[in-house]
Amino acid sequence: MGMKIAAKPRAPLVPVGRKRCDDPRIDYKDIAYLAKFMTPQAQLQSRRRTSFCAQCQRQLKQSVKRARFMGLLPFVG
Amino acid sequence: MNQYEGMFLLDNQVVRADYKAAKALVTDMLKKHGAEITCARRWDERRLAYPIQGRLRATYLLTYFKVPGSAIVGIRRDAELDERILRNLLISVEEVPAKELELGLAEGDDYAPPPPPADDAIDREEPLVGALVPEDGESPELEGVAEDVPASLNDIEEV
Q1: Alpha helices, DSSP H only, in B33-82?
Q2: Are A9 and B149 in contact (CB under 8 A)?
């Protein structure tokens, strides 16, 4: 008889909607900081994981795109 | 007159030949369009995340300048036509960051950067692309939220 393993439902890592606005560190030159919000495949993480507000997430997106254009971050990891 | 930040990616062969000439290449081009250059400095020399025009490494030149908005189109066109400038990125900014202004003015006329390494040289520290690595070992955003997630298979209840 094989035992069934039921995992508990996974809780979200970060609650959506938490405010962390006006983050002055979001800059396309600070790639070590930007890389924290990217997957190992160099994709941008969702707001659910970054916990940024909408404005900061948009800034993050813009900064990552600028960094990719300048050859600082890869398009595909 | 608006304040702009301009990042220019320069071919390392030009920088190896003469850094001052490479810097003048950008600053003269900006002045031609009537820009008042606040500061210009070598930001970094690094390995590119992907090859650009066959180059694996390149030098970044960071500039801050004031120019009428109508001149931006001409600056961008000139930068794109010049083969020695691999990439250019012009962004309007409210003001020059104090730290950048200090670093930019510190780079005087007699500044000589270290010669760039070979094109296939690998940096010691590769850019970190990973998921949410907390600083100083803890992240306040992640605290206490994921307590219910089992750490390993041993914690999973058997039915």
Answers
A1: 72-81
A2: no
Beta carbons of A71 and B9 less than 8 Å apart: yes
The total domain count for chain A is 1
DSSP string of A9-46, one letter each residue: PPPPSS-TT------TT--TT-HHHHHTBB-TTSPBPP
Contact B131 A71 (CB under 8 A): no
The Cα–Cα gap between A17 and A51 comes to 7
Domain membership of residue A25 (yes or no) is: no
By Cβ distance, the residue of B50, B147, B158 closest to A5 is B158
Residue A9: inside a domain, yes or no? no
User: Residue A47 sits in which domain range?
Assistant: 31-69
How far is Cα A33 from Cα A61, in angstroms, rounded to an integer?
Answer: 13
Domains (range + CATH), chain B: 2-106 (3.30.70.60)
- The predicted-structure confidence for B5-58, as pLDDT tens digits, reads as follows 999 999 999 999 999 999 999 999 999 999 999 999 999 999 999 999 999 999
Which of B89, B131, B142 minimises the CB distance to A39? B131
- How large is the ipTM? 0.76
Q: Identify which of A50, A36, A45, A15 has the alpha carbon closest to the alpha carbon of residue B145.
A: A15
Please report where in the chains the tokens 């220019």 appear, as a residue: B8
Q: Decide if A41 is inside a domain.
A: yes
What is the CB neighbour count within 10 angstroms for residue B30?
Answer: 22
